[in-house]
Amino acid sequence: MRGHRGRRRSGGIGAGRGRPLVVAALVLGVTLVAASSVAVWRGQGVSEVGTDAAAELTAPPPTEAGDPPVPITDGRGGSERTVRPPVTLSIPALGLAAQVNQVGITPETGEFDVPPSVDQVGWYEYGPGLEAEAGSIVVAGHVDSADQGHGAFYALGELAPGDLVEAADEAGEVHQFEVVAREVYDKEEIPLARYFARDGELRLTLITCGGEFDPAAGRYQDNVVVTAVPAP
């Protein structure tokens, strides 16, 4: 997992539509940025760092006999699960303070949903919340929009190892995470099962679009993924 991923330029998470990918038995569609997005951002030549560190976080920890397998394959958290959703997300290095919405799958399209306002971000409500001790807490956001300009994650690709990300819950408790990796994937090649997993070490996964904008397809060609772990 080094360097830019293959450039087949189709499908995946991001603006536009393509072949859906399956994670946790849900078709997580292809729209993380509104289909109205245009080449406001135009790609920033995001490089990769910390790919080995990110990969090491996905190894599942030992579980006791009888524990249910993860991720839960129907996308639901189970009736006994008590979830503490993030309600705000702050990234001091980017001067970002964004409202976090709970999002899931759009029933009509089977696509991963995100807030219509590009200055807000979406937490995948069927995955781990801030109470979790394992797995990937997923927050996705827009990079830009034709109508609204820069999105909350416009500069996500500028984050570097050591930068801090702060997520606050409804009680006002702030959970601090430290960036360990920044990766770039062709949309068709992003390993969604890895980034939406409920096992492995606890981490915060931030996803947006990146790469060059394809005017014909109406979408960006890559995804930028930033991984952060609980700060010491």
From TrEMBL:
CDD domains: Sortase_F (cd05829)
Biased composition (Pro residues): 59-71
Pfam families: Sortase
Keywords per UniProt: Hydrolase, Membrane, Transmembrane, Transmembrane helix
Protein name, per record: Class F sortase
Annotated transmembrane regions: 21-41
Region of interest: Disordered: 57-81
InterPro entries given in the database record: Sortase, Sortase_dom-sf, Sortase_F
Highest taxon of the lineage: Bacteria
GO MF entry, a single one: hydrolase activity
Matching SUPFAM superfamilies: Sortase (SSF63817)
